[in-house]
Design a protein that fits this description.
Layout (H helix, E strand, L loop, with lengths): L6 E7 L13 H5 L4 E7 L3 E8 L1 E2 L4 E9 L4 E2 L4 E8 L2 E7 L7 E6 L5 E11 L2 E13 L2 H9 L8 E3 L2 H5 L4 E3 L2 E4 L3 E10 L4 E5 L4 E4 L10 E2 L4 E6 L8 H27 L5 H24 E2 L2 E5 L4 E6 L6 E2 L4 E6 L3 E8 L4 H4 L2 E7 L6 E3 L6 E5 L10 E8 L9 E8 L4 E6 L4 E3 L2 E9 L2 E12 L3 E6 L7 E4 L1 H9 L12
Length: about 500
């Protein structure tokens, strides 16, 4: 059997304490209600929340158990489950081949002896065998002891919200404990996304002429391959520096020099020409060939061919059809977009902390999505030693792999994280609810009951926020779906076990 790391919590209360009651109900009725005990336990793979009748020797107690898979907190839909109540070496058990209802197993267990014991849930699924353990369970000799024990437990009623497991299974929901970790200074700024150096090439004109885009249909964003002809520059009609004339002249000179050299070679065999004349003819031929090959590789009778030097896409087109350009004029930029450069600018007051930057978090303003530098296989390229030209900000350059997350030219929020030896209590930003400038979290009392509590916050890195006060390390809070729990409060009080199978 595969054993896991177990973290368990134990809670018990009279069931009426967790359920809203009509104001007119007589207090005498409370005294005669049977006590209910609640148990919560966690393993690496599962959360168990059970509501059980009091365990009394010789009597059958119902244990209504809710199983959620971790980390997505969705209902366990299948699996063979055995509940084992172990007290003083004696075991009472029941096995269910499948859930009584989606995510819910309803057990009936009759303990044989009183005392302190443990409740073990053994699960068999296609993924393997697992255990979730509730380490402390009381079995009572008589009902009066159960009532007395239940009466000693206090369940918070003020500012609490009921959110049943059936509700949480239908939405994106999760809980977790605060994290205590090193949390240094965070510098918030913005950065512009640019193609990384080496990933973008600007192709320039090599001669004067008229731009011809006809037949190529080169558009911004179009994919191109290495060596693909993008456009041509034609010198036809120009009186000066006509590339077509130069090309024809070079071709004629090459063909003449080639014919002269070949004739000299034949005459040299019969000693009709001297070795010196042969060398001169060879030299003229090679010079003419070099000039012709250079023009032929870049030009044709129609003009200069502008080809893509790499496989990528057209990022920018600098010319229009029919435009006159001179040699060196930029024509088109081709980008591979494999890597992206994020150029951030930081205020001078943060200059002492810049040398301690170790990571960064990026946030897209349009969608609110956040990305860690390491998740994008990124790195910090450089931190400026002086302010930029024309402004008083210090540049910080970061590089990330392009996975389609960012678009060159856009601006994103950047949280630069510095190294620190000081530890702080942090929560994911998704756990925080803001109301009129104050922040709240939903603290878990039980997996179906939550307390809305104000917290004092510190710095944030875009993904996590420092919690100065308001929660303890061993408390669990709603980390995903907190707003839905809040809306449940606005919709009115609900029976925490509405829809449960008893």
């Amino acid at each position: 059997m595969k054993f896991l790391i177990f973290i368990a919590a134990f809670a018990l209360a009279i069931s009426s304490c967790n359920r809203p009651q009509p104001a007119t109900q007589d207090e005498h009725d409370h005294e005669h209600e049977e006590p209910k005990f609640q148990y919560t336990a966690y393993s690496e793979n599962f959360e168990i929340f059970a509501e059980a009748d009091a365990f009394v020797v010789g009597e059958t107690a119902n244990v209504l158990s809710h199983f959620s898979r971790l980390p997505n907190f969705k209902a366990l839909e299948s699996g063979k489950m055995t509940a084992v109540l172990s007290v003083n070496g004696k075991e009472s058990r029941q096995t269910l081949e499948a859930p009584t209802r989606k995510g819910i197993y309803s057990f009936d267990i009759a303990p044989e002896t009183s005392g302190k014991g443990k409740l073990v849930f053994e699960l068999e699924t296609d993924s393997g065998k697992f255990q979730v353990i509730v380490p402390e369970v009381d079995v009572f000799a008589e009902h009066e002891q159960a009532h007395e024990a239940a009466g000693q437990m206090v369940t918070p009623k003020t500012n609490t919200i009921v959110f049943t497991k059936e509700q949480s299974w239908k939405v994106d929901f999760a809980t977790g404990a605060p994290t205590v970790e090193p949390f240094g200074q965070v510098i918030k700024t913005t950065a512009q996304v640019q193609p990384a150096q080496g990933d973008e090439v600007v192709v320039s004109a090599k001669t004067n002429g008229i731009v011809n885009l006809s037949g190529n249909s080169i558009l911004v964003g179009q994919n191109v391959s290495r060596g693909q002809t993008l456009l041509t520059i034609s010198g036809g009609g120009l009186a000066d520096n006509n590339v077509a004339v130069r090309y024809a002249e070079a071709q004629n000179n090459y063909e003449k020099a080639k014919a002269d050299f070949e004739r000299m070679q034949e005459l040299a065999k019969d000693k009709i020409v001297s070795e010196k004349d042969l060398l001169n003819a060879k030299n003229l031929f090679q010079n003419a060939k070099a000039v012709y090959d250079n023009l032929n590789s870049n030009f044709s009778s129609s003009g200069q061919k502008i080809s893509s030097p790499l496989t990528g896409y057209v990022r920018q087109l600098f010319v229009q059809n029919g435009q006159y350009v001179e040699a060196g004029h930029p024509m088109v930029s081709i980008a591979q977009n494999k890597n992206l450069l994020l150029v951030a600018e930081v205020q001078q007051k943060y200059s002492p902390a810049l040398r301690n930057i170790q990571s960064a978090v990026f946030r897209k303003g349009q969608t609110g999505e956040t990305f860690l530098l390491e998740e994008l296989k990124g790195k910090i390229l450089s931190v400026g030693q002086n302010t930029g030209t024309g402004n008083f900000l210090i540049p910080v350059n970061l590089q990330v792999e392009n996975s389609g997350t960012f678009i060159p030219g856009e601006f994103v929020e950047v949280y630069l994280k510095t190294i620190s030896s000081e530890k702080a209590t942090t929560l994911p930003n998704s756990a925080l609810l803001e109301e009129q400038g104050m922040f709240f979290v939903m603290v878990q009392v039980t997996p179906e009951l939550f307390e809305k509590r104000e917290v004092k916050t510190g710095a944030t890195d875009g993904m996590k926020t420092e919690i100065i006060s308001g929660i303890r390390e061993n408390e669990r809070v709603v980390t995903q779906g907190a707003i839905l729990v809040k809306l449940a409060q606005a919709s009115g009080a609900l029976d925490p076990h509405a829809g449960h199978v008893h």
